[in-house]
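During the reporting period, our protein records have gained a C-alpha cell line. A sample record is set out beneath this paragraph:
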Amino acid sequence: MSRRTEQIGGTRQRIVDAAVALHGSVGPARTTIAGIAGKAGVTRLTVYRHFADDEALFSACSAHWLSQQRPPVPAEWSRENDPLERLRVGLSDLYRFYRDGEAMLTRIYADLAELPEAHRKVLASRNDHFRNVLLEPFPEAATNNRLRATVSHGVSFWTWRSLCHDNGLSNDDAVDIMSTLIAAAAGTHPSIAP
C-alpha cells in the first residue's frame, strides 16, 4: 500500500512540476492539460484524476512554487513605527521577492485575467494587505487618496518591473525613488541621497 501511495504522490508531483515549469515559461493562459501531461510523462486522464479542475491544479502549482521562494513578510515591516523607515523595509523586502521570482511573476501577472477567480482575488487581497501595512504609520493615510494611490503603485509588481527590469535600476534605487514619491504624496520630504 505504501509503495502505491508513493507512486501516486510521485505522479502528482511530476504533474505539479510540469505545470509550474509551463506556467513559468509560457504562462498559465497558454498552459494546456495536454502540455502538462506531455511534460510530466502521463496521460491527460491521469492529470484529471489528480486534479479535478484548473483551480485545483493552479492551487497546487502556486503552493509548490511559493514553497521554494522566500515571500515578503509584512509582519516584520510592522516593527518599524516610522512611516518612511517602514516604506524602506517593506519595499526592499517586496522588491527582493519580485526580483527573485521575476520570471514566474511576469507570466502570472500578464495572464491575470485568465487565472481562476479565487486566485485573482488572492493576489488583489495580498497587494491590498501590503499597501495597508505600509500605510499604517502615516497619520493621514485614511484621508489622503494621493498617498493611498501612490503606495498602491509602489507595491505593484509592474512598478518594480518597469523600474528595475525595463530601466535597469537596482532594487535599492527603486526603493529610494518610490519612498521619495510616497513621501511627497504624504506631504513629507525625506532627505535621500541620490
User: Anything to note?
Assistant: Residues 2-67 form a domain with the Arc Repressor Mutant, subunit A fold (CATH 1.10.10).
